């Protein structure tokens, strides 16, 4: 019966897709003449549709008020772009226009008339008449001269990150995503390349293998590759990759993504993409993910960490790696090298760094390998592998690090004998104020130390502790100085400049005029809250940002929230937290500049406040992904910083979603720091948070700790399951449900196992019951007395345990 229902649904979806394609084909053309245009306000009408309706071309929404001119599969749920003209410079949702000019040039203009992108065919076609632009059934956007049948320009010659079936990939083309690219190398082999700011390295085919062992050949003068209609990716270097759903009649794409992996996807009948092949089976095989001195680990999701004795170089960008908090001396010519007796080694187990080997040794003993590195001034570490024999690899630089339980060896880091591996981390962090050292920033290890440390190590620990105290005093000095700057007291100009230089060393300081111009005089509002309004802005260079402008009449509370956001957001880095890039503070003008998150906030997708049915598109897999990402972000704040960070206002409005529905927690204006001393909590000057999500201890005037966020997360988690506001739930008599009644209902669900009655009906049974039961169990535990509530770390681990068990939830009839 269930199978029959599933078949019926699939047939209905196919019919809907067919009708949709037919409708688009009837309302939009696949060929246009010169002098035509389309305004962004005309969406969802496409600019062009392929004759068979498979592809559409036009304005594709990539943010709340940001659009790109793209080509996409018409039937895909999220309109995944397969080609984009302005990938790095989205245009405004009002006033932007794409035009096919009379001289045969395709041009994209922003709201202010600025030309963002052109096909650059105006000069080529000067004097010609009758040029056309069309979208083919292959997804190729073409400018052609019908009188000669010649192609003037085509999008297939300018791929972005995706290759389509029948689209040729040649020696002159490449796919690019961030620092990663796919192209034919000088040896005629198709390769994946990391091209970062410091180094460039090839990582696919795996560099440990020679060309022939990897199944390739460099006797390949044609240098051409293509994805055929059956799901086979072929290259003239003898690469042959096959999709797991090999066969005709399936719409596919091959895409390089921001994590450096190359993946093949198939479009299923529900309009979702299914991965059917990937170049890298181990994500950490991609180079450059964690930067120099950084270690990549996959368990079960990818994360980065620093070597012992290292801190992140830039807490906003992992790709810049980690910097050492010690020195192993000067190895320049004419300088006496340090004595080997000055060093010892710290073991980092089952870890290796690819490349930059100083020597290739035959099998040697561990002691011989250690002595080799000790006697080489340039050696910063050595790798020792035990796989039948002992293989020694002294390292000059430490790039492309990874940890794997299957790696048969370890890395041994060279450090001064008088260096305490852990003390400098604490001292350096204290000197910087709030310096989060997350689980994916500084690796927590109990290192095996090879070499006898001198008795004077206690002296160094004392010095580092003393440095930490000085750091705290520096912070007090800076904070006091800034208070004077903010007050009406007269301060000498030179002293004021000095204070500002110190305060802006961690962030970019914008002027009020810069942000006024970037936001078009604060024209495009993205959202508003109790502490201010958020606007869309575009900085010089095309970067789209969100600018939060605090209310003009901010009181002391407003200033407190402003500096809380400054100190917290500017010093933390996590994939599930919104980053801050800069700030403005000019008299009454106080603003924060955030990264722009494209897909609005969770409440817009979950609660369907406008009644447009948009929330129904939030599939179960996306809901679970959002719940897990939010849990991980809060766990990072609570457990992986040197000081705890309490958000104090966890709610759907403060959970932003990227284009891929990754959760990013925003609005740290209500954040507060509390010491890791196990105390009862912190004292706050006023009640914070949003009604319906506030823990009971707020009303009871009890000391506040991180468990207030746990309570709020429990409410949000349950709302993700049921698809509506918890405070809107009522009894049969119309009375609003109270917390004890909600808890009793959840216990009944857990006891009976009947979670179907609780899950959002708009999902029509398409959900994972085991995941749903776990979410209900966690939600109930979050509503307990605060001493009985779990930690966010426990919650993140519990959700992770069910993360990858069901990619495609079964239908429950």
TrEMBL record:
<keyword id="KW-0547">Nucleotide-binding</keyword>
<dbReference type="GO" id="GO:0005524">
    <property type="term" value="F:ATP binding"/>
</dbReference>
<keyword id="KW-0418">Kinase</keyword>
<feature type="transmembrane region" description="Helical">
    <location>
        <begin position="460"/>
        <end position="485"/>
    </location>
</feature>
<feature type="binding site">
    <location>
        <position position="548"/>
    </location>
    <ligand>
        <name>ATP</name>
    </ligand>
</feature>
<feature type="domain" description="Protein kinase">
    <location>
        <begin position="520"/>
        <end position="811"/>
    </location>
</feature>
<protein>
    <recommendedName>
        <fullName>Receptor-like serine/threonine-protein kinase</fullName>
        <ecNumber>2.7.11.1</ecNumber>
    </recommendedName>
</protein>
<keyword id="KW-1133">Transmembrane helix</keyword>
<keyword id="KW-1015">Disulfide bond</keyword>
<dbReference type="InterPro" id="IPR003609">
    <property type="entry name" value="Pan_app"/>
</dbReference>
<dbReference type="Pfam" id="PF08276">
    <property type="entry name" value="PAN_2"/>
</dbReference>
<dbReference type="InterPro" id="IPR008271">
    <property type="entry name" value="Ser/Thr_kinase_AS"/>
</dbReference>
<keyword id="KW-0808">Transferase</keyword>
<dbReference type="Pfam" id="PF00954">
    <property type="entry name" value="S_locus_glycop"/>
</dbReference>
<dbReference type="InterPro" id="IPR000719">
    <property type="entry name" value="Prot_kinase_dom"/>
</dbReference>
<dbReference type="GO" id="GO:0016020">
    <property type="term" value="C:membrane"/>
</dbReference>
<keyword id="KW-0067">ATP-binding</keyword>
<dbReference type="GO" id="GO:0048544">
    <property type="term" value="P:recognition of pollen"/>
</dbReference>
<keyword id="KW-0675">Receptor</keyword>
<dbReference type="Pfam" id="PF00069">
    <property type="entry name" value="Pkinase"/>
</dbReference>
<feature type="domain" description="Bulb-type lectin">
    <location>
        <begin position="23"/>
        <end position="156"/>
    </location>
</feature>
<dbReference type="InterPro" id="IPR001480">
    <property type="entry name" value="Bulb-type_lectin_dom"/>
</dbReference>
<dbReference type="InterPro" id="IPR000858">
    <property type="entry name" value="S_locus_glycoprot_dom"/>
</dbReference>
<keyword id="KW-0325">Glycoprotein</keyword>
<feature type="domain" description="Apple">
    <location>
        <begin position="331"/>
        <end position="416"/>
    </location>
</feature>
<keyword id="KW-0723">Serine/threonine-protein kinase</keyword>
<keyword id="KW-0812">Transmembrane</keyword>
<keyword id="KW-0472">Membrane</keyword>
<dbReference type="Pfam" id="PF01453">
    <property type="entry name" value="B_lectin"/>
</dbReference>
<dbReference type="InterPro" id="IPR024171">
    <property type="entry name" value="SRK-like_kinase"/>
</dbReference>
<keyword id="KW-0732">Signal</keyword>
<dbReference type="GO" id="GO:0004674">
    <property type="term" value="F:protein serine/threonine kinase activity"/>
</dbReference>
<comment type="similarity">
    <text>Belongs to the protein kinase superfamily. Ser/Thr protein kinase family.</text>
</comment>
<dbReference type="InterPro" id="IPR017441">
    <property type="entry name" value="Protein_kinase_ATP_BS"/>
</dbReference>
<keyword id="KW-0245">EGF-like domain</keyword>
<feature type="signal peptide">
    <location>
        <begin position="1"/>
        <end position="28"/>
    </location>
</feature>
